[in-house]
């Protein structure tokens, strides 16, 4: 705060509090001779520390808030009443992180101001009940925002302001520090959020998206452009999901800006600028707060009328919490799922499949299975597209179908290097299924995934890609299907859920719930019948059912019946 700003602030305070401050000034000046207080010294130290004049008096102990309130009540009739201010309950999703970056977190913290948005060149700022913003402070905020020419405030509770400021500090991206590390780490974050020159708008938008996603541990950022028939204009829609729940949904930027944002992502991730065909890519960044390396998986899909859709999935490169299966399937909830999976990875050969829909955590479970045995002497190789988790002790390969190196080619190459364990990212065609089965038959433990909704459907899918009954009988050990249930926040009162730690949602994380189908003689006989068995008949052979695992999670207090029914439907086994 400059000397002129401080003087302006003091004059603003005098004008605002009028007689109140005059009375305090007189009272304090009368105490100059005492050793306790020198009002000029207090003001000078406040100026040097960047504090407001009134706050300097209060923090020095020269004036109490209670005394100030009492004096204000005495002189209230002599002052014109302040206009009633608009109130708001500040939520992290309302904070514009691009504005925070422009103003800087340190300034926001010093002024205790939370920038929300810019509307028609007016900066909208939240202020606390006990720390109203002065005109000079508003001017300081406006001067840092090129889009704004003035400001207006909204009143928020002090606790909400404290939580918002804490969120801003955790989420704010220190681009300068990240940029300094970029040469050593291969970090593409500075390129994505570059705000120099003509790149400011899209850089700020990307910085806001990534900062919020990293702070909330959001798994997915969805972007798309589309024509709004109500006004004939194109807009960019942005959606952020946390724990499978939509936490941000906004349509604010023009479609042309969305095009530039997606073009930048394409350029940084080395995609071509072909917007006619779908493309997939990945890019590595360093979280500017935690310094952890993050892989962003990018999927770009062209839409009608020249519009685009792009999904960014943020994945930590190393997940120390996945060191064993116990973290995914805690034994204190139910023992059987954990025992079944651990038994599967102890087998010397055969195929284990993890099935589920997109986003159900199949790759995470595969990584946990490999982590369970990575400390052993067995040689472990993986083929993935892309490599999502770095697994210590495993030799990992990324396939490249464009160069003719797909899953079948990777399996054949692996078999020449004498591995013990082979992990295949996904079985998606007959060639991969055949190669995986052959590897399992020849003394290798093989693990992979299938995109089907349950374990019974995996049998139909395997038959559909050319796998025969004899191959299933001789090579397939176990089929696991899983879903993810949101877990309750342990920090907040569940009678009125929502706190700082869970960002007001009541949910803290997710837990896997599974069903397991062990391939034994009964199942093989069922599959070998002339008439294909129904899914219900196959489910009768299940070793573990969704309903049993879900009930254990509910009874342990980790989730709710409503959440189990929401995800599993009738398979949850609860009355609906």
Secondary structure blueprint with pairings:
Blueprint: H1 3-17, H2 19-29, H3 39-49, H4 53-59, H5 65-75, H6 97-103, H7 105-111, E1 113-119, E2 122-128, H8 135-143, E3 150-156, H9 158-171, H10 175-185, H11 189-192, H12 200-216, E4 220-228, E5 233-242, E6 245-254, H13 255-268, E7 279-286, E8 293-302, E9 308-316, H14 336-346, E10 350-355, H15 362-373, E11 380-384, E12 394-398, H16 407-415, E13 421-424, H17 430-441, E14 445-450, H18 455-464, H19 469-475, E15 476-488, E16 507-518, H20 521-527, H21 535-539, H22 546-555, H23 561-568
Helix pairs in contact: 3-4, 6-12, 12-13, 14-15, 16-17, 17-19
Notes on the structure:
- The structure is a single chain.
- The protein has 23 helices and 16 strands.
- Residues 12-40, 46-52, 68-82 and 173-185 have low confidence and may be disordered.
- Helix 14 (336-346) crosses helix 15 (362-373).
- The protein is α/β, with parallel strands linked by helices.
- 40% of the residues lie in helices and 22% in strands.
- The protein has a 7-stranded mixed beta sheet with strand order 12-11-13-14-10-15-16, sandwiched between helices. Strands 6-5-4-9-8-7 form a 6-stranded antiparallel beta sheet. A 3-stranded mixed beta sheet has the order 1-2-3, with helices on both faces.
- It has 4 domains: 3-78, no CATH class; 92-171, GMP Synthetase, Chain A, domain 3, CATH 3.30.300; 175-316, 2-Layer Sandwich (Beta-Lactamase), CATH 3.30.450; 320-572, P-loop containing nucleotide triphosphate hydrolases (Rossmann fold).
- The chain has helices at residues 3-17, 19-29, 39-49, 53-59, 65-75, 97-103, 105-111, 135-143, 158-171, 175-185, 189-192, 200-216, 255-268, 336-346, 362-373, 407-415, 430-441, 455-464, 469-475, 521-527, 535-539, 546-555, 561-568, and strands at 113-119, 122-128, 150-156, 220-228, 233-242, 245-254, 279-286, 293-302, 308-316, 350-355, 380-384, 394-398, 421-424, 445-450, 476-488, 507-518.
